[in-house]
Amino acid sequence: MKYIKLYEKLKKPKIGDYIICKEENINDEALTNFLLSNIGQIYKFNYGSYNLGKLYAYVVEYNNIPKDLEINFREYPEYDKNNLITILPKEIVAFSQNKEDLGIYINKMKYNL
């Protein structure tokens, strides 16, 4: 049974993990390119009240956001941050505990390797 638990640990991102994502309901090409070419970090989990406590979305923190894209990121006054975005689990392209692994992934996507 240990192998099942190990598999579950690898299957779901945790707070502090780094992710690359792509929002499905956005028609803004600049935002899509930013999300696919930058690494975000999971800041907290967001549980939906109608979902009976099940994981609904991830709140992801990004740094170095261009001025023209800042409007797409939410301000969470309770955390005193304005660089957070909400991502659904199905919108995560890749995740890792190591930021370097995702840097390699971005380079592979950039050069079609």
Please trace the helix and strand order, writing H or E for each element: HEHEEEEEH
What structural category do the secondary elements indicate?
alpha+beta
Question: What is the first-to-last residue Cα distance?
Answer: 36 Å
Largest sheet: 6 strands, antiparallel
Low-pLDDT stretches are 1-9
- Summarize model confidence as the mean pLDDT: 81
Explain what this protein looks like in three dimensions:
- It is a single chain.
- The protein has 113 residues and is α+β, with helices and mostly antiparallel strands.
- It has one domain (2-110).
- The chain is built from three helices and six strands, in the order αβαβββββα.
- It has helices at 2-11, 29-37, 99-110, and strands at 18-21, 40-47, 55-61, 74-76, 81-87, 92-96.
- It has a six-stranded antiparallel sheet with strand order 4-5-3-2-1-6, covered by helices on one side.
- The radius of gyration is 15 Å and the shape is globular.
- Residues 1-9 have low confidence and may be disordered.
How would you summarize the topology of this molecule?
Elements: H1 2-11, E1 18-21, H2 29-37, E2 40-47, E3 55-61, E4 74-76, E5 81-87, E6 92-96, H3 99-110
Antiparallel strand pairs: 1-2, 1-6, 2-3, 3-5, 4-5
Which structural traits does this protein have?
6-stranded antiparallel beta sheet; alpha+beta; disordered N terminus; single chain; 113 residues
Concise structural overview:
The protein has helices spanning 2-11, 29-37, 99-110, and strands at 18-21, 40-47, 55-61, 74-76, 81-87, 92-96.
